[in-house]
Amino acid sequence: MYFAALLARTEDGWEASDTELLDNVETLSDLADLAREAAAEDDTVLVLIEQEDAWFGVVRIDGEDDPRIYVSDAAAAARSSYGEILLTDELLGREPGGDDADLESLDLDGTEDGEDEDDDNDDNDDKGGGSAEAVPHGPVGDPGVLDDLGISEKELKSLSQDALGEIAEALGASEVLETVR
Q: Which positions ≥6 away from 165 have C-beta within 8 Å?
């Protein structure tokens, strides 16, 4: 089960709204646009996403700046539709479009040795695609994404069970988050 919420910082504190990401968002750019719509002027908006006890993600949008992302477990997130939105090539340290370039360099004229093809298919069946192999287990992204909001890199990396609740509590936004949970 997934939970996703937007926390927008205002003059009066944090405001929360829940969101159905799958209905509105297909890319990180779409997510950033959705967050900016929730912002009062150019204030900070946090997109908090979690999949039960498997992983959580934080996307921070400050005005028109590029989104800053932290994902607690990239391998777990890679197996979910929400996670795929967050796990960009840049976040994973891959060349953009690198998978396509690999495919273009292959000579697929039907005379290939079946062993390599079978090996590739086995990898794809297990991972849902060849690129998932490069997804590390553990956290990826900017662990300092919440430093100036009172959650250090060390604290963020140590969160587990109710990570979003603990983040909201540290921000003084636990009550508003609970209203949309």
A: 174, 177
